[in-house]
Amino acid sequence: MGRLEGKTAVITGAGGGIGRAAADLFAGEGATVLMLEMDEGAGRRAEKQLTLVERRAKWYSVDISDLRAVEAVFGRIEAEHGGADILYNNASVFWGKKDAALDALDMDVFESIVRINLFGTVYCSKYAVVQMKKRGGGVIINTASSAGVIGIPKCDAYTAAKGGVVSLTRSMAVEFGPYNIRTNCIAPAAIRTPMVAESNLNDPEFDEQFFLTRGTPLRRWGLPEEIARTALFLASEEASYLNGAILVADGGITVS
Fold first, then answer.
1. How far apart are CA 201 and CA 118, in angstroms?
2. Active-site residue among 60, 127, 158, 241?
3. How much is the average pLDDT of 238-251?
4. Domain range for residue 62?
C-alpha cells in the first residue's frame, strides 16, 4: 500500500516543473491526483501521461488568482471526489523581466505577482479547509522561496508574496491545527525549472559558473523531484507531528 493510498490530493501548477514531479510521486503512492493547471496543453499532457500508467488523475483548468474560479473548481472537486485530503499550493510565477526594486516597480505588476503567488494560495486554502474540516482533517503544503526568508534584490513583488506565504503558513498552522489540519511550507531555491531559467539563466547579469562554484554549498542545481519528495514527506503520515514548519530546500544557499 502506498503512503497516500485512498487520499485525494490537489496540486496547483501540476502541468510542469515541481508540480508535475509531485503529481507523478503522489499518484505513484496511491493518491487520486487532481491537477489545477491553467495551461491547457500542459494539463492535458499531464493527465494523459498519468492515466496511461493506470494512475488516478484528473486535470482541471483554473486561474488560481480568480476567487470565483477557485470556488467553482473546489465545488467540482467536492461533488466528484468528496473533497480534498491534501492540498499542495505549488503554483507560482516569477516575472524576472518585470519584477524590480520597489522604486522602479510597476504597481500593476506588483499586484499581479502577489495575486497569483499569495492570493492564489489563500483562495485554494480557503476552500480546501472547508472540505478538510468535513473530512476530519487534512494536509496543506504551501510554497514559499528563499526570497521569503532572506532579502533578494530586484524582485520585490515576488519577495513580498513569498514572505506573506511564510507568515500565512504559521497562522494557518495555529488556526487549523485543532481541526487535525496540518499546514507546512517548503521554501525552495535554485531548482532547475523553467521558472529558474527565466529568473536566473536568462539574466545576462547572472554568473552560473560563480553560482555553481561559490554561490551554493552543494555546488549544483536542485531538481524538481527533490522538492516533490519533500512535499510527499509532508503529505504523508511520516510527517504527522509537523505543523507550521518552514522547510528551506535550497542546498544551503540561505545559510552560506
1. 25
2. 158
3. 97
4. 8-193+223-240
